C-alpha cells in the first residue's frame, strides 16, 4: 500500500513515522522549504528561539519523546498579567478565587453532559448549546471567574477573542484539567534542543519526503491521484493534515469540509531583550484584539533573554513596530528583533458553518474511504492531543 | 536517651497525657517540656545531645585561608604543592596537606573546579556573610530542612523551608525523603515566582546547618540551586553555615518560625494523617502565616506581607495558586 500525506508539520510527519513503523510506504508532501509547520526553532550560537509551539502539556507525549530519544525538561513557567497602563495586576482578585474553584467543579459536571464520545482527542458531535460564543455561554451559566481565568490562555492558543470563539472549541482545548493545570502553575514540558528537534528525529525515519505544493487530489479508480507543480502520482490513500483550497480536493465531502474551515492570522516576533528576570507576560487589555500584542513568552539562555511576542493580524512593518513599542512601554529594553513569522493558526468553523455532525460525518465508514483529514483540522490543538489522535487514527484505519 | 526515644516520649505524652508519661519514663515534667520546646524549634535534631562547638587548636587561620583563595583566583591551574610554595612567599607556613584539606572543604580539589571558581562561576567562596539586619526585604534568604522523625500514618517527615530574613515571608514543603532536589523544587515551584511577584532582589542564600548536610553533598546541592536561579536570571551568592558555628541571630529566627509551624503540623502528625493531608495543612498554615499571622518587627507588629507593603509600598500581586491548595 502507498499512502500520501499532505503537510510536513508535526501531525503529517508523525503519521508518516507511524505508518513506516507498520511497514507501509508513506510519502510526505510539504509545500515549504522547511518541515515542521508550527514546530519552528531558529538556532544561533548559545541560544534557540521557538517561533511557533513553545511548550507542551506533559501528558502522553513523553512516550513519543522517549521513543525518538528527544531530550526534554519539565519546568515551571511563570506568568505576569498587565493592565492597559502596563501595571502588574492579578488575573483574578483574591476574593474571586473561591468562586473559581467552585465554578470549575460546576463546569466539569456541565461539560460532561455534552460529551458523548469515548475518543477525547478528536472533535465529535457539536452540541447546539456549545455553538455560541464562549463569553455568551459563560454568561448564560453564570461563570464569571472562569472567563477571567481562561481569557489569556484562549488567546495564547490562537483562538482569538472570547466573544467570538465558540464554547465548543474553547472547552475542547481548555477542558477542566487543562484549566486546572494553568491555574495551579504546574510544570510544562520544554524540548531541550527545540521543537524542531522532534521533526528532525521523525524525518530520519521517513524515507520519502518531497517538497512540492499539491494542486489537485482526485479519486482515481481504486486509489487517489495527486498532482503537484512538477507531475502526478497515484496512491492508495491520502491523509490531509493541513489546510488546502477546497477546489483542490476532488472528494465532495472533504472539499465541503475544507470550504468551511477558516483559520486565524497570527504573528510571532522574537526579540532579544536586556531585562534579566522578566517572565511571560499577558496584556489583559489587548486579549483577542486584532493587531495588538497579546503576550510575550520570555526565557533565559546562557546570559541572554529572549522574548517571543504574539499578536493577531498579518505580519508587516507596522505590526512589528507596534508590538515593539508596546513592549518598550511596559518597561522592557528591546535590543533587536531576531525573527518574525506569519501563521495561519487554529483551523475551525464559524458558528453558521459548524453543524452538529460536521466532525462525526468524517469519521463514518473510515475504513473504506481514500481521502482522510487528520491532525489539527479534526483534533484538539495541543501537541499531546494531536499525538494521541493521529496515533489512534493510524491504529484504526491501517 | 537517644533522639528517637525522646520523640517516642513526646508523641506518647502529647496523646496520652504529660504527667502520666513522665512518671512512666521517670523523667521530670521540666525536662519533658525542655525536650518538647527543642523539638518544636528544631525537629529531631533538637533532641540530639548538645555538643559544645569544637575548634581544633591547629586550625588554619582565616587570614591564611583568605590569602589562599586570592592565590587560587590568580593561579587556578596549580595544585596544593605549588600553592604551598606561593603561600611561603607571602610568609605563611602551612603544609601541603593543610592546603589540600582547605581545597577539599570548599570543593576545589579538581583543576576544572578551580578554573570555574577563578572565572567567577560558582562555587562562590570567601564572600563575606552579609549584615543580615541591614539587608533589604528579599535580599537575604535562609534555607533549611528539618527532620521531624517518623509518624504512624504519615511516615518520615522532612520539612524544607525558604525564608526571607528581613520580611519573614516564608514558604515550606514537606517530603518523605531528604534530597537536595526538594530545595530546587521548592525554589522553582514557589519561592522564585513569589519573589518575582514581590519584587524581591535576592542577593544571598544562607544554608543553615540543621540536617548535618554532608560536605560531599553540598556542591551538588549548590550547583542545582545555582542552575535554577540562573535560569530565572538571578545571580546569588551562596553561603553555608559552617559546622558547629553558632549563628544565634539566624537560629532564633529559624526556631521561632519552626515552632509556629510545628505547632500547626504536630496535631496532624500525631493523628496519623496521610502525607497528602499534612501537605494541605501546611499550605493552609503558610497562607495564614504570610497573610494574617502577626509577628514582631523592629518598630511594629504585623503579618509578613503587611510588613512588606508598609515598608516597601509594594502591593503583592500573587498568582492564583498562592491562594489555593495544590498537591506536589
List the defining traits of the structure above:
heterodimer, A: 398 residues, alpha/beta, FAD/NAD(P)-binding domain, Guanine Nucleotide Dissociation Inhibitor, domain 1, 3 domains, seven-stranded mixed β-sheet, B: 328 residues, Nucleotidyltransferase, domain 5, five-stranded mixed β-sheet, two-stranded antiparallel ribbon, 12 helices, 7 strands, 12% strand
In short:
With 398 residues, chain A is an alpha/beta fold. Chain A has helices spanning 10-21, 61-68, 97-114, 134-140, 144-156, 167-173, 176-184, 196-203, 252-260, 317-329, 358-363, 383-397, and strands spanning 2-6, 25-29, 41-44, 47-50, 72-76, 79-82, 88-89, 187-191, 208-210, 214-220, 223-228, 231-235, 237-240, 261-273, 280-283, 293-301, 304-312, 334-349, 371-373.
Protein model, in words:
The complex is a heterodimer of chains A (398) and B (328). With 398 residues, chain A is an alpha/beta fold. Chain A folds into three domains: 2-75 and 192-251 and 370-397, FAD/NAD(P)-binding domain, CATH 3.50.50; 95-183, Guanine Nucleotide Dissociation Inhibitor, domain 1; 263-346, Alpha-Beta Plaits (2-Layer Sandwich). Chain A has twelve helices and 19 strands. Chain A has helices at residues 10-21, 61-68, 97-114, 134-140, 144-156, 167-173, 176-184, 196-203, 252-260, 317-329, 358-363, 383-397, and strands spanning 2-6, 25-29, 41-44, 47-50, 72-76, 79-82, 88-89, 187-191, 208-210, 214-220, 223-228, 231-235, 237-240, 261-273, 280-283, 293-301, 304-312, 334-349, 371-373. In chain A, the strands form five sheets. Chain A has a seven-stranded mixed beta sheet with strand order 7-6-15-16-17-14-18, with helices on both faces. Chain A has a five-stranded parallel beta sheet with strand order 9-2-1-13-19, covered by helices on one side. In chain A, strands 10-11-12 form a three-stranded antiparallel beta sheet, with no helix packed on it. In chain A, a hairpin with a 2-residue loop joins strand 11 and strand 12. In chain A, helix 3 (97-114) packs across helix 5. The longest helix of chain A has 18 residues, at 97-114. Chain A is globular, with a radius of gyration of 21 Å. The relative contact order of chain A is 0.20. The longest helix of chain B has 23 residues, at 248-270. Chain B is an alpha/beta fold and 328 residues long. Chain B is globular, with a radius of gyration of 22 Å. Chain A binds chain B through residues 75-76, 78-79, 88-92, 94, 97, 100-101, 149, 183-185, 275-279, 300, 305, and chain B through 188-189, 192-193, 196-197, 230-234, 317-321, 323-324, 326.
Amino acid at each position: 500500500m502507498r499512502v500520501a500525506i499532505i503537510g510536513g508539520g508535526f501531525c503529517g510527519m508523525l503519521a508518516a513515522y507511524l505508518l513506516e513503523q507498520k511497514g507501509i510506504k508513506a510519502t510526505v508532501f510539504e509545500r515549504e522549504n522547511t518541515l515542521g509547520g508550527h514546530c519552528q526553532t531558529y538556532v544561533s550560537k548559545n541560544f534557540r528561539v521557538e517561533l511557533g509551539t513553545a511548550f507542551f502539556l506533559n501528558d502522553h507525549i513523553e512516550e513519543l519523546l522517549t521513543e525518538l530519544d528527544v531530550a526534554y525538561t519539565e519546568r515551571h513557567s511563570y506568568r505576569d498579567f498587565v493592565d492597559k497602563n502596563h501595571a502588574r495586576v492579578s488575573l483574578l482578585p483574591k476574593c474571586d478565587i473561591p468562586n473559581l474553584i467552585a465554578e470549575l467543579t460546576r463546569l466539569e459536571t456541565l461539560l460532561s453532559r455534552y460529551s458523548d464520545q469515548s475518543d477525547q482527542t478528536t472533535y465529535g458531535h457539536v452540541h447546539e448549546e456549545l455553538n455560541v460564543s464562549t463569553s455568551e455561554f459563560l454568561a448564560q451559566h453564570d461563570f464569571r471567574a472562569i472567563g477571567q481565568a481562561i481569557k489569556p490562555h484562549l488567546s495564547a492558543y490562537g483562538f482569538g477573542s472570547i466573544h467570538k470563539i465558540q464554547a465548543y472549541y474553547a472547552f475542547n482545548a481548555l477542558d477542566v484539567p487543562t484549566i486546572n493545570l494553568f491555574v495551579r502553575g504546574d510544570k510544562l514540558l520544554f524540548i531541550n534542543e527545540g521543537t524542531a528537534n522532534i521533526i528532525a528525529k521523525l524525518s530520519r525515519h521517513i524515507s520519502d519526503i518531497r517538497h512540492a505544493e499539491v494542486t489537485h487530489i482526485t479519486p482515481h479508480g481504486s486509489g487517489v491521484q495527486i498532482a503537484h507543480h512538477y507531475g502526478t502520482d497515484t496512491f492508495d490513500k491520502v491523509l490531509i493534515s493541513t489546510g488546502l483550497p477546497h477546489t483542490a480536493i476532488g472528494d465532495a465531502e472533504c472539499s465541503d469540509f475544507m470550504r468551511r474551515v477558516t483559520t486565524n492570522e497570527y504573528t510571532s516576533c522574537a526579540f532579544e531583550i536586556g531585562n534579566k528576570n522578566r517572565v511571560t507576560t499577558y496584556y489583559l487589555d489587548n486579549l483577542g484584539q486584532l493587531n495588538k500584542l497579546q503576550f510575550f513568552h520570555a526565557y533565559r539562555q546562557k546570559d541572554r533573554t529572549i522574548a517571543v511576542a504574539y499578536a493577531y493580524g498579518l505580519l508587516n512593518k507596522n505590526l512589528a513596530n507596534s508590538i515593539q513599542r508596546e513592549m518598550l512601554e511596559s518597561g522592557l529594553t528591546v535590543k533587536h528583533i531576531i525573527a518574525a513569522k506569519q501563521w495561519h493558526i487554529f483551523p475551525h468553523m464559524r458558528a453558521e458553518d459548524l453543524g452538529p455532525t460536521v466532525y462525526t460525518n468524517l469519521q463514518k465508514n473510515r475504513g473504506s474511504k481514500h481521502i482522510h483529514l487528520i491532525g489539527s483540522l479534526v483534533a484538539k490543538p495541543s501537541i499531546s492531543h494531536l499525538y494521541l489522535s493521529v496515533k489512534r487514527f493510524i491504529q484504526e484505519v491501517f | 536517651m537517644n533522639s528517637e526515644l525522646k520523640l517516642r516520649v513526646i508523641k506518647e505524652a502529647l496523646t496520652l497525657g504529660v504527667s502520666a508519661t513522665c512518671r512512666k519514663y521517670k523523667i521530670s515534667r521540666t525536662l519533658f517540656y525542655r525536650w518538647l520546646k527543642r523539638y518544636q524549634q528544631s525537629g529531631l535534631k533538637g533532641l540530639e545531645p548538645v555538643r559544645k562547638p569544637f575548634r581544633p587548636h591547629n586550625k588554619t587561620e582565616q587570614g591564611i585561608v583568605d590569602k589562599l583563595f586570592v592565590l587560587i583566583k590568580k593561579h587556578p591551574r596549580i595544585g596544593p604543592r605549588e600553592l604551598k610554595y606561593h603561600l611561603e612567599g607571602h610568609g605563611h607556613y602551612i603544609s601541603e596537606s593543610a592546603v589540600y584539606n582547605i581545597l577539599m572543604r570548599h570543593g576545589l580539589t579538581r583543576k576544572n573546579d578551580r578554573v570555574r571558581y577563578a572565572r567567577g562561576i560558582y562555587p562562590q567562596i570567601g564572600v563575606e556573610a552579609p549584615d543580615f539586619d541591614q539587608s533589604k526585604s528579599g535580599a537575604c534568604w535562609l534555607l533549611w530542612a528539618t527532620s521531624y522523625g517518623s509518624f504512624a500514618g504519615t511516615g518520615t517527615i522532612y520539612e524544607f523551608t525558604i525564608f526571607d530574613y528581613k520580611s519573614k515571608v516564608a514558604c515550606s514543603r514537606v517530603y518523605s525523603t531528604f534530597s537536595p532536589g526538594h530545595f530546587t523544587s521548592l525554589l522553582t515551584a514557589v519561592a522564585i515566582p513569589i519573589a518575582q511577584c514581590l519584587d524581591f532582589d535576592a542577593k544571598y542564600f544562607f544554608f543553615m546547618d540543621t540536617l548535618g548536610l554532608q560536605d560531599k553533598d553540598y556542591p551538588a546541592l549548590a550547583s542545582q540551586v545555582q542552575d535554577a536561579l540562573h535560569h530565572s536570571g538571578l545571580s546569588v551568592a551562596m553561603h553555608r553555615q559552617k559546622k558547629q558555628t553558632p549563628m544565634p541571630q539566624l537560629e532564633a529566627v529559624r526556631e521561632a518560625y519552626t515552632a509556629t509551624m510545628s505547632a500547626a503540623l504536630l496535631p496532624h502528625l500525631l493523628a496519623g494523617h496521610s502525607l497528602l493531608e499534612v501537605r494541605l495543612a501546611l499550605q493552609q498554615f503558610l497562607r495564614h502565616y504570610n497573610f494574617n499571622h502577626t509577628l514582631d518587627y523592629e518598630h511594629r507588629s504585623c503579618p509578613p506581607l503587611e510588613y512588606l507593603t508598609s515598608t516597601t509600598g509594594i502591593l503583592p500581586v500573587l498568582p492564583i495558586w498562592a491562594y489555593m491548595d495544590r498537591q506536589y
